[in-house]
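Quick start: read one record
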Amino acid sequence: MIFPKRVGFIFLGGMAKVIEDIRELYSGLSSRTHSVTAEPKSELTRADSYSAKRELRMRKLVTRENIHLGQMEHEISLIPVRVSASYSFPLESTSREQKPITSYRKATDYVQRLVDLIIGLRHIRENIPHRAAAPVLAYQKRVDSCITLALYACEHAFRSQRALPHILPSCRKVFDAELRIDTLQRDVGHAMAENEVMEQVACTVDGLVQVARELFGMRMWLEGVDDVHLGIGL
């Protein structure tokens, strides 16, 4: 079957959309967690209803992406081509362009994992008393900001097919830096339940960033500084 890059474009647009939904769902969940005062019950009910609808849509989008992956497996334009030197003109392309299916599948797996984790995180945070979260809001904000930034960068990369910024904070490193403080200042039961999920969220987001870099590259805009000195590399 030959699809002149049509399915590939649909897939990339769908990935951008599902990452956008994940980011918005996570941002909304974080905003409610970071609120100084507990929200009225009516507002919580409305927010939960909206979140449930978005979760259903995300699952449908991921299912659709898997269908597109199956179609792309049979696209001639995505099958690696080996040609002799005399036929090297348009058939030769970079390895990234030749067979991106493996990276596409890894990205889809990461996104599917994120959907499941964010849904689980929402249920955990719904059952945490507001007073239990208050002492560690400042530390949570750092982790949540890091995750939101990484998701936005990936969303933009898939939508525009452009390189990611060179400097992106590692969600796992930020989470590890805040984990000890969080556990010491918070109810241990709630901290353990949320931290277990948050650790997986951070690792999964970092994995998605890495796949996006493999697909679209990395834009260097700050010379002479590496991630080690900044403390934010992967």
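The first helix runs from residue 6 to 34.
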